[in-house]
Amino acid sequence: MSEVRVIGVALDSIGQPVLLLKPIDGEAAQGKILPIWIGPLEATSILAAVQGSPTPRPFAHDLMRSLIEAIDGVILHVEVTRIDEGTFYAAVRIEGSNGEHLVDARPSDAIALAARVGAPIHVADEVLAEAGIEDTLTGGPPPHDDAADEERLAEFRRFLDTVDPDDFKE
Q1: Residue 61's CB: how many other CB atoms inside 10 A?
Q2: Disulfide: which of 2, 45, 145, 162 matches 59 by Cβ 3.0-4.6 Å?
Q3: Cα distance between residue 160 and residue 138, in whole Å
Q4: Which of 6-10, 56-60, 150-154 bottoms out in mean pLDDT, i.e. has the lowest?
Q5: How far is CA 165 from its chain centroid?
Q6: pLDDT, greater one: 96 or 158
Q7: pTM listed for this prediction
Q8: Which residues lie below 8 Å from residue 90, measured CB to CB, with a gap of 6+?
Q9: What are the strands, taking DSSP E only, across the chain?
Q10: 124: closest CA among 86, 93, 100, 88?
């Protein structure tokens, strides 16, 4: 497993949100980005959490966090465990009063939850090998560039400032 961080959410050519994960460890994974297509509501939730933006009402991921904390649980980390026919699978590792549990989750939900509690995000090396793409967005290593991160965050803030919930109605 390689630890990754959220570097942003982009829109593909048809306007579908794509979550972008960048490895921060693991030599074999350096220079790669893992794109995972997600829904618009999940994209908004992840961006709000990554940016620390307040929300007028709790998102479902805020509820998940509150429920886990209410029973004295701790989210240890989340894992993107596999990809099968283009579908990504993930799990949330939680420590509770009765031990550790690995709970099945969609990657977008697991990552939104991890972003809210500051939990590490891991991706299976096999997933990075199969679905990772060369990093042409940030220029590859080094794995962390504060100036580039700030510019991406500013772009996401502009998106959040202009997004209207009606944009997501079908």
Answers
A1: 23
A2: 45
A3: 22
A4: 150-154
A5: 21
A6: 96
A7: 0.73
A8: 78, 79, 80, 81, 104, 105, 106, 107, 109, 110, 111
A9: 2-11, 17-23, 32-37, 74-84, 87-96, 99-105, 121-123, 133-134
A10: 88
